[in-house]
Write a structure and sequence with these properties.
This protein is an alpha+beta fold. Helix content is about 55%, strand content about 15%. The radius of gyration is 27 Å and the shape is elongated.
Length: about 230
């Protein structure tokens, strides 16, 4: 019979960007305790039969990782200088993140770029898109209805705007974070007639135009141009 695994695993020991994890695994019905950490760019997974022995070894390895003993075995003088400088810069900007985690994030983001553009340019563009006030569709709808009410718009028009509540219930994030593909999926899942779909398309566009006039999204933010009509 297999031994039940403890809910306290895995355990994670972390210090100054270095991490050693302890997993409880099953080996022929008997529990074993496996460490997981990176040494010299390779993942190491030693196993122990007793949890206290695994814990002691994990603490020893973590201390050595922090002091740089394991890494220094594979680095020349100039390489170690670059390594230490990289670790210092990483710790200053992203405390607690390991160098491997930073490299993983960098390479993943680099692959996500559809061109040879730099990550710095992509990050700057992202920051510019997210520098607008964080207004949700619900907040924008409330302002839109209030504004149109003050302008004396008809009850029928205001009721028409109220049909956007389904959109509000679906998207509780900021207006700037909504993508055209998400709106397309939203409209598809409503399973409406072509005429009703186009009405929803128009009303959602009205909300984004209003948000643009209030400075909640960029001027001439034509997100609905990418959303198909019936």
């Amino acid at each position: 019979m297999k031994s039940p695994k403890s809910s306290s695993y895995p355990k994670r020991l972390k210090e100054k960007g270095c991490t050693v994890q302890i997993y409880e695994i099953n080996n022929g019905g008997h529990p074993q305790y496996q460490l997981s950490y990176y040494e010299g760019g390779k993942r190491k997974r030693p196993k122990f039969t007793k949890p206290e022995v695994a814990r002691n070894n994990a603490e020893i390895i973590l201390a050595r990782l922090v002091s740089g003993e394991l890494e220094s075995l594979h680095l020349t003088g100039p390489e170690r200088q670059v390594y230490v400088l990289a670790k210092q810069k990483l710790e200053a900007s992203c405390p607690g993140m390991s160098l491997l985690e930073a490299i993983d994030e960098f390479t993943t983001a680099k692959k996500a770029l559809s061109s040879d553009g730099s990550l710095k340019e992509a990050a700057s563009e992202w920051a510019s898109r997210h520098s607008f006030p964080s207004k949700t569709p619900s907040e924008v709808l409330a302002e839109l209805i209030e504004t149109k009410t003050k302008l004396g718009m008809s009850d029928a028009y205001l009721k028409d705007l109220g049909r956007l509540n389904k959109f509000t219930d679906t998207f509780s994030c900021s207006m700037m974070s909504i993508r055209g593909t998400e709106i397309e999926i939203f409209l598809d899942e409503l399973d409406m007639s072509p005429r009703t779909r186009n009405n929803y398309h128009r009303l959602i566009g009205t909300r984004f135009k209003f948000a643009s006039s209030r400075g909640y999204v960029p001027k001439h933010y034509d997100i609905m141009d990418s959303v198909g009509k019936a």
